[in-house]
């Protein structure tokens, strides 16, 4: 594995005293925005949320009042025309990610788009091309990657403490199946567990392995009562050097979000890999040790990383090309799940 690449990706952090603020606008009042991203951005060193838009003005005004946001708009177009906004965060349903990201970038705004960045790799590439053409920063909102523990995990792998890498296993499941009107259960809107939570172990494996998968095989529970989206999926992504990610994800199962890195002489156990307690454990020939990590707001870290790229104070840690590559893996997983075949990438 190219651990030099992994360390390079994860180590691009800088400590800078901030005297200015990146002015954010938010398109949509989704739960992830209201409960996580907006509060996290407000807690960041670099960001301030100045406006929020909804197609329902009353909803935008209510959300703005609740969260202390100065301006509320009743259309997405209005917020893009606000000259006092530097960057747009997009937590809309998946099928709207490409359209409104492109429209925001063409309006001169930097864009943080919720994961998955698009419905497929072709859409993601169009978004990446637009970012390059417009000279703006485009990032996919995988907040967990900003926590320094992933640098620590990469360092442990590179050190050889757990031996030669043999595989990674990841999970992300929760049970929301009773909420039948949820946008996650609209197949044409990009619903399903692979899009919603399977994308996390897929991205984590790519990050820690420093490589791209070569093939995918996925078995899924396709639910007719949930518009035939994948409510549970179990799969394998084949990486170079005979290493694989095995994963399961679901929206109709007990909650868990774990990651395990397996080597010839030990393993790294991450009980709460994406959200929750950041502490993890290393099992080696010397026994089990706990690696205590700081409890940090990953959404605040995400906002700070984004702003410093916009201001030219650091290079992008995760580029649009990374988002395109992640979508290629997701595309293969979805194709495999619905065709019940192994799919080369």
UniProtKB/TrEMBL annotation:
Residue ranges annotated for the Gfo/Idh/MocA-like oxidoreductase N-terminal domain, each copy included: 22-139
GO MF assignments: nucleotide binding; oxidoreductase activity
Keyword Oxidoreductase recorded: yes
Domain GFO/IDH/MocA-like oxidoreductase positions: 150-269
Keyword Oxidoreductase attributed: yes
Keywords: Oxidoreductase
Pfam families listed in its UniProt record: GFO_IDH_MocA, GFO_IDH_MocA_C3
Recorded family membership: Belongs to the Gfo/Idh/MocA family.
Protein name per UniProt: Gfo/Idh/MocA family oxidoreductase
High-level lineage: Bacteria, Bacillati, Bacillota, Bacilli, Bacillales
């Amino acid at each position: 594995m190219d651990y030099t690449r992994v360390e390079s990706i994860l180590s691009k952090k800088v400590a800078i005293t901030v005297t200015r603020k990146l002015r954010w606008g938010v398109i949509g009042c989704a739960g992830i925005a209201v409960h996580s991203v907006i509060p996290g951005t407000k807690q960041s060193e670099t960001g301030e949320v100045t406006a929020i838009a909804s197609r329902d003005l009353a909803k935008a005004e209510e959300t703005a009042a609740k969260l202390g946001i100065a301006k509320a708009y009743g259309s997405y177009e209005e917020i893009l025309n606000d000259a006092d906004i530097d960057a747009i965060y997009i937590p809309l349903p998946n099928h709207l990610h490409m359209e409104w990201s492109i429209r925001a970038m063409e309006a001169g705004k930097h864009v943080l788009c919720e994961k998955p960045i698009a419905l497929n790799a072709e859409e993601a590439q169009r978004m990446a091309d637009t970012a390059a053409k417009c000279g703006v920063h485009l990032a996919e909102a995988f907040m967990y990657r900003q926590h320094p523990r992933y640098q620590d995990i990469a360092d442990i792998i590179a050190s050889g403490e757990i031996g030669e890498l043999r595989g990674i296993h990841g999970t992300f499941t929760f049970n929301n199946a009773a909420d039948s009107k949820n946008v996650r259960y609209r197949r044409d809107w990009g619903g399903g567990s692979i899009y919603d939570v399977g994308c996390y172990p897929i991205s984590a494996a790519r990050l820690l392995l420093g490589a791209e998968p070569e093939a995918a095989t996925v078995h899924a529970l396709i639910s007719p009562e949930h518009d035939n989206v994948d409510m549970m999926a179990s799969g394998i992504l084949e990486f170079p050097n005979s290493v694989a990610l095995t994963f399961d994800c679901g929206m109709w199962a007990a909650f868990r979000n774990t990651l395990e890195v397996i080597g010839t002489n030990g393993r790294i156990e991450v009980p709460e890999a994406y959200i929750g307690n950041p502490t993890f454990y290393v099992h080696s020939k010397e026994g089990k040790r706990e690696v205590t990590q700081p409890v940090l707001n990953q959404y605040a870290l995400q906002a700070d990383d984004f702003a410093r790229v916009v201001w030219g104070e650091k290079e992008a840690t995760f580029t649009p090309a990374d988002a395109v590559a992640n979508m290629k893996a997701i595309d293969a997983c979805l194709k495999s799940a619905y065709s019940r075949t192994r799919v080369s990438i």
